UniProtKB/TrEMBL annotation:
The organism's taxonomic lineage, starting at the top: Bacteria, Bacillati, Actinomycetota, Actinomycetes, Kitasatosporales
Superkingdom per UniProt: Bacteria
Myo-inositol-1-phosphate synthase GAPDH-like domain ranges (all copies): 207-311
Record's compositionally biased regions (Pro residues): 387-396
InterPro entries registered for this protein in UniProt: Myo-inos-1-P_Synthase, Myo-inos-1-P_Synthase_GAPDH, NAD(P)-bd_dom_sf
Protein name from the UniProt record: Myo-inositol-1-phosphate synthase
Family annotation (PANTHER family): MYO-INOSITOL-1 PHOSPHATE SYNTHASE
Family: Belongs to the myo-inositol 1-phosphate synthase family.
Any Pfam family matching the protein: Inos-1-P_synth
Length: 409
């Protein structure tokens, strides 16, 4: 277990706080801290992070934004009925779910919302600051786990970028676990650099792309020529519905293709298809078909099938990222946390694309945090008082925000 100051309290502000991933994060953290389940899938609970000063799981306090109004306890019951959460867990951690639900505030922009981008950012930042003050937190990390949004058109800030700007204004580190724009909007880049805050992202790597980041280097290192790499995803629930939008699916697939380009040194023929199958709920099947050449041009095929529960794959990584980013903030680090590329399809900063090399950088980061000591960093509610807006006039992108969980693979 990683050590932390006994009096430390760290907020985890989830954008998309009533979705499947966020609900699993809250329920899972409560289950692990109560000793009901082991921390399976949590990288930060492995021995390499011992004594790195990460905040204890018991110190995490949850809140967030969402446009949905289904309470977390009821959402957890639905996930248990679908086999995502263990039977009986929602009732066992009902108090923790209810406490987190009380800290969820209305998100946006909802359909018909007439507030400007500046007004929305100010409101979101105020919600985050109030959370820090009300819960007596040392610091808070904002993590985007909302549904994938289409890439923006024009200069308007999409919903994910409004929340990212609000995190900066509230003085909070930011993690984008989705392929949505977030801090990648050009209008926010100078603000992020000037904020003195650490940030990480983008697009959590939990399934099909995780496997690609292992297999891609294997083919390159064995000097095997990949001729084509095609894939398919079948998934349901809100994520399947969100990714039925071709623009949202294109944003998701860009990261999958980037991993192959970075590990193979070229982009092979083929593409990934995403199909919405509502009956699958939170479960997904990902299939890859890889055509490659061996010695003397012998043609061969590798096929893989990944069947997994998206929320159960993503939730432990969200907890890992919240702890690592909070610790980086405490240690006085700022800017893109490239060492966290292990967790993402499209990592910020410079770094390798292969999983083995990414893991080596992550373990180096653990050592860096271990030697960083405790730094004095302004609390979020005290950071940049009266700071100006994002410097981007205009209104939010049309269509409103879609929250309620992120498909990440």
């Amino acid at each position: 277990m990683s050590v932390s100051r006994s009096d430390s309290r760290v907020g985890v502000w989830l954008v998309g706080a009533r979705g499947s991933v966020a609900t699993t994060v809250v329920a899972g953290c409560a289950a692990v801290t109560a000793g009901l389940h082991p921390p399976t899938g949590m990288v930060t609970e492995s021995p390499v992070f011992a004594d790195s000063g990460l905040p204890a799981l018991t110190s995490l306090v949850f809140g967030g934004h969402d446009t949905l109004d289904c309470p977390l306890p009821k959402r957890a019951e639905a996930l248990a009925a679908g086999g995502v959460l263990p039977p009986g867990l929602p009732s066992a951690v009902a108090a923790e779910l209810a406490a987190a639900d009380r800290e969820i505030r209305p998100g946006g922009p909802a359909a018909g919302d007439t507030r400007s981008a500046e007004e929305l950012i100010a409101a979101f930042a105020s919600d985050i600051r109030d959370f820090v003050t009300r819960c007596d937190l040392d610091r808070a990390v904002v993590v985007n786990v909302a549904s994938t949004e289409p890439a923006p058109v024009g200069s308007e800030l999409p919903a994910s970028s409004l929340y990212a700007a609000a995190a900066l204004r509230a003085g909070c580190p930011y993690v984008n676990f989705t392929p949505s724009t977030g801090l990648h909007h050009p209008a926010l880049a100078p603000l992020a650099e000037a904020s003195g805050l650490p940030w990480a992202g983008r697009d959590g790597k939990t399934g099909q792309t995780l496997l690609r980041s292992v297999l891609g280097p294997m083919f390159a290192q064995r000097a095997l020529a990949v001729r084509a790499w095609s894939g398919a995803n079948l998934l349901g629930g809100g994520d399947g519905a969100a990714l039925a939008d071709p623009a949202a699916a294109a944003a998701k697939n860009a990261g999958k293709e980037r991993v192959l380009a970075d590990t193979l040194g070229t982009v092979p023929e083929g593409e990934v298809h995403i199909d919405d199958v509502p009956a699958l709920g939170d479960w997904k099947t990902a299939w890859d078909h890889i055509a490659f050449d061996g010695f003397l041009g012998t043609r061969m095929i590798l096929q893989t099938i990944w069947q997994g529960c998206d929320s159960a794959l993503a939730a432990p990584l969200v907890l890992d990222l919240a702890r690592l980013t909070a610790r980086a903030h405490e240690a006085g680090l700022s800017g893109p946390l490239a060492e966290l590329g292990f967790f993402f399809k499209d990592p910020v900063g410079e770094g390798p694309a292969g999983l083995t090399e990414q893991y080596a950088r992550l373990t180096g980061f653990a050592e860096r945090l271990r030697g960083a000591g405790q730094q004095t960093v302004p609390a979020p509610d005290a950071a940049a008082p009266g700071s100006p807006g994002p410097g981007v006039p205009g209104t939010p992108a049309p269509g409103g925000a879609t929250h309620g969980g992120e498909e990440s693979e």
